[in-house]
Amino acid sequence: MTTMDAAVSIMPGSHADAAGAAAAAVVRRSVAVPTPARGLLADVTESRETPFTWEGSPWRLLGPCLFNGLMTLATVGVYSFWGRTEIRRRMWACVRLDGEPLVYHGTGMELFKGFAAALLIVLLPIFLLSTTLVVVYGQASQSWALWQTGLFVIVYPVLKSLAMYRARRYRLARTSWRGIRGSLAGSPSEFAFLSWATSLLYPITLGWIAPWRAIYVQRFLIGDTMLGDRRLKFVGSTTKPYLTFSLLWVGTAILIFLSIYGIGMIIGSQFPQLKSPADWARITTQQWIKVAGVVVGALFVWSLISSFYRSTLYNLTANFTLVRPPDGFGLPPLRFKLTTRGPHLIWLFVTNQLLTYSSLFVLKPIATARSLKYFTQHLSIVGDFDAATLRQNPNAARTEGEGLAQAFDFDAF
User: Fold this and answer.
1) 123 near 80, Cβ under 8 Å?
2) How far is 34 from 12, CA to CA, in rounded Å?
3) Does some domain include residue 290?
4) Contact (CB, 8 A) for 356 and 58
5) 41 located within any domain
6) Does residue 52 sit in helix, strand or coil?
7) Partners of residue 323 on adjacent β-strands
8) Residue 227's CB: how many other CB atoms inside 10 A?
9) Domain residues for 370?
10) Which residue among 67, 125, 127, 163 has the highest number of C-beta atoms inside a 10 angstrom radius?
11) How many distinct structural domains can be found in the chain?
12) Given this model, what pLDDT does residue 326 score?
C-alpha cells in the first residue's frame, strides 16, 4: 500500500525549468503507456471471488518483538536485520490465499549486506562531501547553501524513490505462494526520476497534483509487477480520487490556518522582537512546548481526516488492477477487490499510534501486522482463479538486499 509523498520544496527561481522538466518526463512516459484497457474488465468473471484470509493474532509477535528489541540494543542495531527478517517470515505466514500461506525467503544477511553497500557507496560519500564543504567554505557560504538545496530538492527525493522501488523488487522476489514468486521487471532509475520530476509539480499546483501523481506512480509500479508469469496492469482513472481529495484539501487549508493562528496566540506578542536568530532565545521553554503541541496536534488531526481520501485511493488502486494471463493461453483476466473504509482506517491509525509510541517502537511490528490483517481480510481476487495455471517467472530471483530502504526506514508495507 502507498500513501502520499511529502511535497518537495524548490527554489522560486527554478519553478519554470523544473515544471518543464517534469512535464516533459510525464509526456515521455505517458506515450509509452497505452490507453487504459477498460475493456479487459468486462472479461473478468465478477460472480466468483477468492478471498485472502488471515490466520492467527498479530499479538503472536509479542515475544519476537521483545526479543528483537533486546538483541538490537545488545548488538547496537546489528541484529535488527535478522529480527526484521524473522518478523516478516511470521507475518507473511499469516496471509493465506486459497488456504495456502505466503512464504518469505529473505535473510538477515541479505538485508545487512544491502544496507552496508548503500552506506558505503551512497550515504558515506554524501556525508564526506558535506563535511568537506563545511570545513573548506563554511556553513554561511553560497557553496554550502547550493549543496544543501541540491540534497533536499534532488538527491534525497531521488534516493528515496530509488530505495522504495528496489525494496519492493526485493520483497516480491523473496515472497512466494505455492512456490511461485513475484518480481518487478522495470528500471529503478526511471521510476526514481519520474517520481522526483512529478513531485516538483506540488508547489506549482498547491498540492492538487497529489491524486493524479499517486495514481501515476502506482500505474508505473503495478505495470512493472509480475506474479509468477502473470503481469499486472492498472486500468483505472486518475480523476476518481479528486472528490474526496477536494474535501481533504479544504480541511487541510482550514487546519493550517487554525495552526498558524494558534501559534500566533502563543508567541505573537514577541514577533516584532524576533529580528535575528539570537532573539528566538527569548521564547520560553513552555511556549516551545505549546507550539510543538499545536504542530503535533495538527498533524494528528490531518492523519484522521486524510483516512477517507486514503481509503478511496487504496480501493481504487486495487479494484482496477488486473492480473493478465500470458498471451496465447486463452485464460480470462483477474482483478483485485479491496473494500476499506475511512472510519476503519481512523481506528487503525489511532490504536496503532498509541501502540507504537507507548512501547517506544518495540511493538511497531504488531501495529504493522494489525494493518496487514485488516487489508488482508478486505482483499480478494475476482474472476475464475485457477492456481494450477500459474507458472513461475524464470527471472524472478534476486540476491541483493534492500539497502537504501533501511536507511530511509521503509516498512514492510
Assistant:
1) no
2) 35
3) no
4) no
5) yes
6) strand
7) 232, 334
8) 19
9) 12-237+320-407
10) 163
11) 1
12) 83
